[in-house]
Amino acid sequence: MYLPKPFESFSKQFPDIMKQYQQLAKSCRDTGPLDEKSQELVKLGIAIGVNSKGGVRSAVRKALSAGATQEEIQHAVLLSTTTTGFPNMIAAMEWTKDVFDKQS
Q1: What is the pLDDT of residue 2?
Q2: Using CB atoms within 10 A of its CB, is residue 1 exposed (0-12), middle (13-18) or buried (19+)?
Q3: pLDDT tens for each residue of 43-56
Q4: What pLDDT does residue 1 have?
Q5: What is the reported pLDDT for 36?
Q6: Contact between residue 82 and residue 46 where contact means Cβ atoms under 8 Å apart
Q7: CA distances from 57 to 17, 19, 99 (A)
Q8: How far apart are CA 33 and CA 18, in angstroms?
Q9: Which residues of 6-42 are buried (b: 16+ CB within 10 A; e: fewer)?
Q10: Chain-centre distance of CA 31, in angstroms?
Q11: For every one of its 104 residues, what pLDDT tens digit does the chain have, with 9 covering 90 and above?
Q12: Closest CA to 36 of 3, 55, 2, 59
């Protein structure tokens, strides 16, 4: 799985913090009824909302791995239009396309 260099560097520099962060993420995922694909689509929406290029790309990769189709992911991106605005949606659509192109 692809990990950005800053993430890898942080993990090496602060392994205890990273371990606790990963445990928190696992606890959050395990607490609720959403399946993995739904969780990844929710996280995609959040990443779009904060206009995070890396977050969107990561969420798209994870959503694909969890079984989401490209059409489902594009629909999730389109849904962000009326919440985060057209420019954020367009940027997210482009970042999503980058991931799709690399997977092809």
Answers
A1: 76
A2: exposed
A3: 999 999 999 999 99
A4: 67
A5: 97
A6: no
A7: 24, 23, 6
A8: 25
A9: eeeeeeeeeeeeeeeeeeeeeeeeeeeeeeebebbbe
A10: 19
A11: 678 899 999 999 999 999 999 999 999 999 999 999 999 999 999 999 999 999 999 999 999 999 999 999 999 999 999 999 999 999 999 999 999 999 98
A12: 59
Q: Hey, what are 30's tokens?
A: 């395990």
Query: CA angle, 70 as apex, 66 and 76 as ends, to 5°?
Result: 85
Task: Give the amino acid at 76.
Answer: A
Structure tokens belonging to residue 49: 């909302």
Token code pair at residue 47: 């990443």
The three-state (H, E, C) secondary structure of the chain, written as one string: CCCCHHHHHHHHHCHHHHHHHHHHHHHHHHHCCCCHHHHHHHHHHHHHHCCCHHHHHHHHHHHHHCCCCHHHHHHHHHHCHHHHCHHHHHHHHHHHHHHHHHHC
